[in-house]
Structure formats: structure tokens, C-alpha cells
Amino acid sequence: MLSILHISDLHFGPPYLARIGEALQAIAPTLGPDVVIASGDFTQRAKREQFEQARRFVDALPGVPKVFVPGNHDVPLYRIAERFTRPLELYREHMSNELDGVLRLDEAVIVWLNSTSPRRAISNGRIHLDQLAFCEETLRSVPSSVVKIVVTHHHFLPAPDFERDQTMPKARRALDVFVRLGVDMILGGHLHRAYIGNSLDVYAGADREHGIIIVQCGTTTSRRGRGREREKNSFNLLRIDGDVLKITHYLYFDDERRFEPVSHHAFPRPGRRPFQDGLLAD
Q: pTM for this structure?
């Protein structure tokens, strides 16, 4: 079984909540993650001191492989010259120099993609054709027994709630490619509230037999929660157990001063028939 700790939207700077960060540091080792994924917005305003704080924070998490992607707040929004000429310079210096990459494990292949678009779509992000080609090259030869995961900051689908989020330009183009490549899960952040479901909830796509499991994380350590997670903090714990993908969603509770699980989700891998194959049977 492979365990993945999924955090997002730390927002080091004025929105960061130290007591929440301490609670995450306390619970993380007890969860026994094999991988930590942080899906962007490490900082609030892409300042050097904020990246330094974020780096110290993630380094204090369990010493397992870590996957980072930048978020739109990791781009200097108001430092215009820097945004257009070297938008992710400080991110690359402090967090990761690899903006698109792959982590290969026995149970899973994790592809991360930089969805920031500093010059054209800084809020909603974008995935470009060369990045889809990178996914094609990386995933087309992966055996069907291995779970395929894509990580970005920006969301490909809006959360199905009352807030009307705009998605990435050409998001459906990317989803169709991911479906064709047999991607099992997409992890992201940006929305500041969690959504755990299936791409077919929102977009039917060309192949209605193979939706993709969507795992959105809320803001793990900032005061910027939205919608049903307004003034709340959350993270996800994913477990890959054969052909069953399990996600536990955690919220922070002030009265207990700790994170606690609030929901459990179990999905057969897309394309598997759960009861015929005995995956989710009692």
C-alpha cells in the first residue's frame, strides 16, 4: 500500500496560521506517508523570506520523496518586470528547479505540471501542448497495473457547489488527453476548499467509461478558506491499495487543536468494475 500526504496553499506571509502549521507538523509523521505532495501557493506574494519560511516548513515534514508544483501566488504579481522576465526564479531557487517532472514508484507514477501562466492567465493558469506531450511520453508505456497520477496547482474542473469558479483555458483538451493515457487521479489546489469526486461529475468527455478521480485540497495552513471551508484548513491522505484508491479528508478543529478525519472515500480505479471484480465488496 502506498500512502500520499496531499497538502496545498500554505500561503506563507500574512495569511499563514502558525498554529495550524504546527498541527500539521504534529500529525504528519503519525500518518506514515510514503510521499508528500504540495500542490502550489507556498507563498502569498512570492517574496524571498516567504519562500525561505516555506522551505523550512516542508523540510520539517517526514523525510520522504516530495512533489512540489508552483501556484499563481508563487509568481510575483505586482513586481511586473520580474513577472514577465523571471516569474519563478525564487520558486526555483528555494522549492524546486524542476517545474514539470515525474516520480516513479512501484505502485504509482506521479507526473507534476507547472500550471502557472504569468503572462497570460495568472489566475486561472494553463497547461500547454508541450506539457501534454511530456505526459504522453511519460505515461504511454506505464503498465496498466501502475496507478497514474497528475499534479497541478490549478483545477481542471470547478467544484460542484454554489461558487462559480473559472477553470483553466483548454482544460477539457487536457482532460481528454489524460483519459486517453489512462490517468487515474488528478491532484490540485487553488480553490481553497476540497472537492473529491470524478471528472464525469462535471465533464462527460469523449470516453464516459473512464472518468478521472479528482482530489482537490483546500488551504492547509492559511486563513483564506472559501465556500464550505471558509475559515477552515484541510489536507488529504491518499492510500493506493491495489485497484482501490482511498482518500481521507482531514479538517482542523480549533476546540481540539488538531486535524481530524471528516470523510472517507473509496474508488475503484477508473475503468474497473467495483463489484464484478470484488474491489468494493463487503
A: 0.94
